[in-house]
Amino acid sequence: MTARRQGQGRVAAGVLALAVIGLLIGGAFFGLGQEALTAWRSALSAFDPYLVRVARFTLWQAALSTLLSVAPAILVARALARHPRFFGRGLILQLFAVPLALPAIVAALGVLALYGRAGYFAPLFSALSEERWPGIYGLSGILVAHVFFNLPLAARLFLAALENVPADQWRLSAQLGMGAFSSFRFIEWPVLRAALPGVAGLVFMLCATSFTIVLTLGGGPRATTLEVAIYQALRFDFDPARAIALTLVQVALTGAIVLALARLGAAMTGDASLPVAPRRALFPGRGEKGFNAAIILLALAFVAGPMAATVIAGLQADLGRLAGENAVLSATATSLVLSALAALLCLLLSLSLVMARRALELARAAPVPGLLERMSDTGAAMVLIVPPIVIGAGWFVLLRHFGDVFAFAPVMVVTVNAVMAMPFAMRAVRPAYDAASARHEKLCAALGISGWNRLRLVDWPALRKPAATAFAFAMALSLGDLGVIALFGSDRVQTLPYLLLQRMGSYRTADAAGIALFLGLLCLGLMFAATRWGKGRG
Amino acid sequence: MTRHDDPGGAAIRLEGLRFAYSGGAAMRFDLKIGASDIVALMGPSGSGKSTLLNLIAGFEAPDAGRVLIGGEDVTHLPPHRRPVSMVFQENNLFAHLTVAQNVGLGRSAGLRLSSVDQMAVTDALARTGLAGKEERLPHALSGGERQRVALARVLVRERPVLLLDEPFASLGPALRDEMLDLIAALHREQAMTILMATHDPRDAERLSKTLVFLENGAIAGVGATMDFLSGRRGPAAFDRYLGTRKAPQ
């Protein structure tokens, strides 16, 4: 069958990509398994009350973070959807996209600069509570930082869902005279409810596997998550047995969550009739207008606060001296090269999987996708179950048998960061590819355009813009990542986030603030330039 | 919500109505339509058919001019305060509500229905040939049935003006005729004024008495449908728009 033949190259590329992911994850598990077998006694004894406490805290902070992010996000998204011409709406939405590109360590510093013991709000809080403000560390710090990241993300996802409500339905609601409550009940809530499991699940996963925030804002054994405990077990205690016990619990936990979410989110398919909605007929009352404006402004202040604090604190650092420092310069070069390579690898792997999935979907006769298609669909989501720290830990334990672990830092950073960014990259690339394929598949088959020619002439023009976005996203994510490098970093291989963590650790706060500003601007600039580039050519 | 116990039709008058989408060309509409008339709106894509309907329904606000329905100035009234019902080409139903609930929304936007309302819903569903399908969800209906549900809602709303924005464009010819006949039957009962945007001269011929021809955001001709379609008294631009597809004599 020609449809089958057409897809062979694409399927092969997908299989290769899955093999790379499999090798990366499999290698980590091999390392862990081997260690567990040789040191099973001490691994077993590591299942102690400490581990239970850490596991419980991991879930507890993730649940709280999800609740505090998602519930307000529903209100914010609804407010933005009902006011398509709210003053500065476009700007607010762009600002809400910033936390996505902002490195976690930069945000953590911003939160500290604002609410910390010596933060800008400390005098105010001290005056209000009539005692010295202790600063937010521990659970409160983790929650504030997680909400800072995930409220805007959830709001944007919910808003995207609301944007899919056909314009005619808004018109219908206006004609039938639905007020704010009826409109919420009949139009907005059904859409939001359909999106809720997916959004809440994503936020919960991000918070349950959040490493940097907990490392920098969590305090001591009371506020430690599994990932941070793994890192501490390997880097400080050098206790591989404990690391293995922790890793097993982490994988079991996240695996269970992902399975539960897949169950919940399985009903998320709706019939999509999407006419373009350039204008929306909405007639909110005065009371609702005021309420919505207040909601939007509150969310805006909460999100903009730590960003502003980062900028102000960063400008107070001795930027001139930092810019001339060798350590900063070499960390910048290392960061740029490694993240560019990671982004390239990420894009290649994502495109391969997206193409393979589509080719398999077209070739199958049965309505139910086969195993390979499902793997190419959700293979990238594996990194959610197996977080970067776990992969890093596995390879760390394995590689120490083959010489200097820290010498492998560049390879580990590039590969793990590439795979880590895949879910995001695939989300950017897949709709465009599937849409282009739906338009061109028959034509390509009829004209005999396939392989490289097809990629170059037919697919690439449609993919250029989303691919640029995916690349920029992956690079920004990798540039700001402090996961694998925290394990593998050393004096020889330092990235900017690693250097930042070191300066924080040695209480050189001003230096840290300066580097944070630089790193933050680098990530944002990259993002901005690449979306521009993507738009200009796309 | 104002309900009109004595339905009947209402005359529509557009006086110097001006409107432009941002970046789009200026449109201008002046039009008089008699009470209980059935009017077909025809014209090329982009000529302003949907805009004209949206202005009457209140989904768009004009830059200048007035909309009068039944002699009353409704220019500044929100959509639900206007004596108007509208049926779109698609998305007339909420996918998660049953057929009966979708119709019931026509009586109460919060679905608080009295027993009288519920009887009206049942009755409207029977008259649109949907008896027994009250509890179905829209995705379990055919395209034609979904539009019937929208018409049932029009019935329970009992508004003196009905706007149809190419409501049968996605239906086959036989279904289309069936729907047109249904609308004609509903018109005999409630005598509402009907404006229907359409591309198909057969729709106009089967249903409408009056034909309004739009071109470039303005009304280019008004007359009896038969005169236009026979090619005897319509403007030359209308004949060009129609091409060779004149209605059968």
Fraction of helical residues of chain B = 25-40%
Coarse morphology of chain A: globular
- How many separate helices of chain B? 8
- Binned strand content of chain A: under 5%
Description:
The complex is a heterodimer of chains A (538) and B (249). Chain A has 538 residues and is mostly helical. In chain A, 79% of the residues lie in helices and 0% in strands. Chain A contains 24 helices and no strands. Chain A has helices at 2-38, 40-45, 49-82, 89-101, 104-115, 122-129, 138-163, 167-175, 180-208, 212-217, 226-235, 240-265, 286-316, 319-324, 326-363, 371-378, 382-385, 388-399, 409-420, 422-447, 451-479, 484-488, 496-505, 509-537. The radius of gyration of chain A is 24 Å and the shape is globular. With 249 residues, chain B is an alpha/beta fold. Chain B contains eight helices and ten strands. Chain B has helices at 49-57, 99-104, 115-127, 143-157, 173-190, 201-207, 225-230, 236-242; strands at 12-19, 27-33, 38-42, 64-69, 72-73, 84-87, 161-165, 193-197, 210-215, 218-224. In chain B, the strands form two sheets. A six-stranded mixed beta sheet of chain B has the order 6-7-8-3-9-10, with helices on both faces. Chain B has a four-stranded antiparallel beta sheet with strand order 2-1-4-5, covered by helices on one side. In chain B, helix 3 crosses helix 4 (143-157) and helix 4 packs parallel to helix 5 (173-190). The longest helix of chain B is centred in the C-terminal third of the chain and has 18 residues, at 173-190. The radius of gyration of chain B is 18 Å and the shape is globular. Chain B starts with 11 loop residues before the first strand and ends in a 7-residue tail after the last helix. The relative contact order of chain B is 0.18. Mean pLDDT of chain B is 88; it is low at 1-5. The interface between A and B is medium-sized, with 25 and 30 residues.
